């Protein structure tokens, strides 16, 4: 909700008996000092990863593939060092990261998790199939 405030001003005419008023609009939260930067909020973990891999000079699409793989590794493992180990295993001899290998590593970790938790994997895949079917129905309805 935007707050409006009336601010008394001095009239430019010396003989004017009544002061004029200027309408000031403040920021939605009431203070101009707490205004946020325009645009989408920064995803800090994603930004940290982008800063970490800055020397590889990836395109946005390659970075998105690596980000999805790393998120999958984080979700399907309990080990906090799993991401570091996966990146080391998918690093080439010249030091650059092979994103396709990192994606395969994420798929391997997910497959191991599916084998360890068959009842949860079946429920999740059923939910995913329902979402895909609903998306297809919405697409054909347009």
Structural notes for this entry:
- The structure is a single chain.
- This protein is 54% helix and 8% strand.
- The chain has 142 residues and is mainly α.
- The chain has a domain at 44-116.
- It has a two-stranded antiparallel ribbon.
- The longest helix has 24 residues, at 118-141.
Keywords for this structure?
two-stranded antiparallel ribbon, 142 residues, mainly alpha, single chain, 54% helix, 2 strands, disordered N terminus
One letter per element, helices H and strands E, the order comes to EEHHHHH
**Biggest beta sheet summary:** 2 strands, antiparallel
Q: Which class do the helix and strand fractions yield? A: mainly alpha
Task: Give the uncertain stretches in residue-range form.
Answer: 1-7, 22-26
Which word captures the global form?
Answer: globular
- Compute the number of helices: 5
Mean model confidence by pLDDT: 79
Rg on CA atoms, Å = 27 Å
Write the layout of secondary structure elements.
Blueprint lengths: L3 E6 L10 E6 L18 H9 L7 H17 L5 H8 L9 H18 L1 H24 L1
Antiparallel strand pairs: 1-2
Q: What can be said about this structure in brief?
A:
The protein is mainly alpha-helical and 142 residues long. The protein contains five helices and two strands, in the order ββααααα. It is globular and about 45 Å long.
